[in-house]
Amino acid sequence: MAVAGSLALLATACGSGDDGNSSSGGSSAGSLDGRGPITLASGKDTSGNLQNQLNAWNAAHPNEKVELKELPEDADAQRQQMVQNAQAQSDSYSVLVMDVVWTSEFAANQWITQIPEDKVPDLGKLLPATVETAKYRDKLYAVPMTSDGGLLYYRNDLLAQAGVNQAPKTWDEMKAACTKVLALPAAKGMSCYSGQFEKYEGLTVNFSEAVNSAGGEIVGKDGKPNVNTPEAKAGLEELVNDFKTGVIPKAAITYKEEESRRAFQDGKLVFLRNWPYVYALANKTDGSSKVAGKFAVAPLPGKTGAGVSSLGGHDYAISSFAKNKATAIDFINFMASEERQKANVEKTSQAPTWASLYDDAGLNKQFPYLAPLKASIQNAQPRPRVVKYGDVTAAIQQAAYDSLSGKTQPDQALSDLQTKLQSLITQ
Amino acid sequence: MTATTPVTAPATEPKRKQRFDEGTGRLAATLLSPTLLVLGVVVLFPIISALRESLFTSGQHLDANGFVVKGETFVGLQNYADIFRGETGTRFWNAFYNTTFFTVVCVVLETVLGVAMALIMHKAFKGRGIVRASILVPWAIPTVISALLWKWIFQADGVANALLGTQILWSTEGWQSKLSVVLADTWKTAPFIGLLVLAGLQTIPAEVYEAAKVDGANAWKTFTRITMPLVKPALLVAVLFRILDTLRIFDLPFVLVGPHKDSVETLSMLAYDEAFNTRFGPAAAYATVLFVYIALVAYLFVKILGADVIGEARAKKPGGGKGGGRWKRSNAVKASASAAVTVSAASGSGRNI
């Protein structure tokens, strides 16, 4: 069967290889052949479960073992090593564990191989938003392995005291709830809300969520920047005004994920926007969290209805310079299978990409945030899918940060950003 | 036949001499060649290849299918010209200003503090070992770690704000982020100057001080007339090293305050940013500009203040070259100069710790 598969692949490769395209030399798309040992280049495995997953593959495939190459924990350092590896055209990394925002850059540079969609049988069963992150110009270059969406953490104990029985669905509802809660004596010294507003990738995430939730977009479906719009302005102004009026504490301009988590855990915030990983930590009963058992999660609120989260997560791609690509795609399918993803969720609580796992009764019992997380991911938007992502995210951060710190007016910042993005995206 | 005569003719004295010279020359070349080869591979080649790289660009255009057009394009001095123009120009001059600002402010503070530390460490008192060790601790900590340490101190709910009783947001844009970098850098590297000056102090013979005492010099006079001139060569080498180090400051502002912050962005951070976004040509151009700036500053420093990094080598050639003369003028005592050289050699290996 494997032989038949690679023969069919060979045929498709020959068919699509010679289309007279001058620049697509070297690694032609789709030639997924060769069997034997492979390597998996992944960021440092903080969960400790990745090797277990690989052992399961290795036990079943003694002649096509996969070896883990651990890269640094920091995402920027991982990307740097993968880029260097690609530029040296080294075959030492076969499968790359990539952050969802890298796909366009890696695909455009032909550092990763295009994967024919029929080689990934379960693609239709994954959450569609996650599959979008693995595509460049409508072609599949990776397989989504884990996902992530923003969640609204809220103090349900305080909300109940204030007579609010439901998680807010809009920004206005959230602020109304805050007014009631902050009037309570128990809420002395608290602020209403925080996300991540330090000048780093998290700011791009929070800014995108504000803009998307207000009905705006940063890069449109046609791939052109479209940020100088009333909708985008409404989103940015919401954040700017919240800073001005103190809904968001002043210190939040220095918050990354961890700082904002600590503020929430220390009981300084009523509402927090953060990723699912916070759930387990904030629920710890060892004294590190003052809010254990006192909070719940909901999808992010928006301007007129439910908000739009930015997508996080990781995709598995095949390096263009790898040997044994047939083994690599089999391995990716193995890791992306429902069984393996379920095993991974149980051990690490990383959000899966299989839609069915979010409805699994056992998992829901273990991780009560799965239902709001599914809603968050289903409604989520990827961050701008552009080749020069590093420059684009830096430009977005500049515009957002200058507005939040009061240096630039939001409309000025957005029109500057539009000009900047036009020069970065039109190539 | 005729060919053999010149070889055999000067058979006696000159030939033996010639053979001796040839032999040592060849031996020297043979012995030195591995060193030269390694130097060529690890020093010369990267510099030349960076200079070459700075004249090219690559990977900046997409073809119709959305793929990056491969191959490098020769653009001459375009990358250099781009540095000084338009938006990148504003960013460059801001980074240039920051780099220079940090260098001047940090090095001045570090020199004053370092000399003070050295004087304290040099004094004979009980528990001197502990004081010396504790002063040197900051220097022993890697820069990235101390940057993280200060980041925690300076965060919104950190120790600094708790002590001051205010809420200064240190890592946001403005004077406060510059100040935090200056504080952290001074804390870390003043001990380095202290260490080098201490080595200089220890080479000053006790008799000189005794003589001053007999002559009735007070403490200030002793310091300005004896200690400072004698310790000057060591101090200048230390300051030169700090200047070179601070001009390429990267990790401290990058970790402590963060990338893309106008208030603390330095030239190294610009070069890094370009390279990170796979624009290696412009990155090499930025690095070259920084290289030239550092070389210029070092040259001026040596010229104007007479810091003598290779003083001993010149001193060993009596009357040889102009350098020897200048060296004699600027350095009163040979012993302290050789101390400076030893220390500079030692610090060279310890600089990157």
TrEMBL record, chain A:
<comment type="similarity">
    <text>Belongs to the bacterial solute-binding protein 1 family.</text>
</comment>
<dbReference type="GO" id="GO:0055052">
    <property type="term" value="C:ATP-binding cassette (ABC) transporter complex, substrate-binding subunit-containing"/>
</dbReference>
<dbReference type="InterPro" id="IPR006059">
    <property type="entry name" value="SBP"/>
</dbReference>
<dbReference type="Pfam" id="PF01547">
    <property type="entry name" value="SBP_bac_1"/>
</dbReference>
<dbReference type="GO" id="GO:0015768">
    <property type="term" value="P:maltose transport"/>
</dbReference>
<feature type="compositionally biased region" description="Low complexity">
    <location>
        <begin position="15"/>
        <end position="34"/>
    </location>
</feature>
<dbReference type="GO" id="GO:0042956">
    <property type="term" value="P:maltodextrin transmembrane transport"/>
</dbReference>
<feature type="region of interest" description="Disordered">
    <location>
        <begin position="15"/>
        <end position="46"/>
    </location>
</feature>
<keyword id="KW-0813">Transport</keyword>
<keyword id="KW-0732">Signal</keyword>
<dbReference type="GO" id="GO:1901982">
    <property type="term" value="F:maltose binding"/>
</dbReference>
<keyword id="KW-0762">Sugar transport</keyword>
<protein>
    <submittedName>
        <fullName>Multiple sugar transport system substrate-binding protein</fullName>
    </submittedName>
</protein>
From TrEMBL, chain B:
<keyword id="KW-0762">Sugar transport</keyword>
<keyword id="KW-0472">Membrane</keyword>
<keyword id="KW-1003">Cell membrane</keyword>
<feature type="transmembrane region" description="Helical">
    <location>
        <begin position="27"/>
        <end position="48"/>
    </location>
</feature>
<feature type="region of interest" description="Disordered">
    <location>
        <begin position="1"/>
        <end position="20"/>
    </location>
</feature>
<dbReference type="GO" id="GO:0005886">
    <property type="term" value="C:plasma membrane"/>
</dbReference>
<feature type="transmembrane region" description="Helical">
    <location>
        <begin position="101"/>
        <end position="121"/>
    </location>
</feature>
<protein>
    <submittedName>
        <fullName>Multiple sugar transport system permease protein</fullName>
    </submittedName>
</protein>
<feature type="compositionally biased region" description="Low complexity">
    <location>
        <begin position="1"/>
        <end position="12"/>
    </location>
</feature>
<keyword id="KW-0812">Transmembrane</keyword>
<feature type="transmembrane region" description="Helical">
    <location>
        <begin position="133"/>
        <end position="153"/>
    </location>
</feature>
<feature type="transmembrane region" description="Helical">
    <location>
        <begin position="189"/>
        <end position="209"/>
    </location>
</feature>
<keyword id="KW-1133">Transmembrane helix</keyword>
<dbReference type="GO" id="GO:0055085">
    <property type="term" value="P:transmembrane transport"/>
</dbReference>
<feature type="transmembrane region" description="Helical">
    <location>
        <begin position="230"/>
        <end position="250"/>
    </location>
</feature>
<dbReference type="InterPro" id="IPR035906">
    <property type="entry name" value="MetI-like_sf"/>
</dbReference>
<dbReference type="Pfam" id="PF00528">
    <property type="entry name" value="BPD_transp_1"/>
</dbReference>
<feature type="transmembrane region" description="Helical">
    <location>
        <begin position="283"/>
        <end position="302"/>
    </location>
</feature>
<comment type="similarity">
    <text>Belongs to the binding-protein-dependent transport system permease family.</text>
</comment>
<dbReference type="InterPro" id="IPR000515">
    <property type="entry name" value="MetI-like"/>
</dbReference>
<feature type="domain" description="ABC transmembrane type-1">
    <location>
        <begin position="96"/>
        <end position="301"/>
    </location>
</feature>
<keyword id="KW-0813">Transport</keyword>
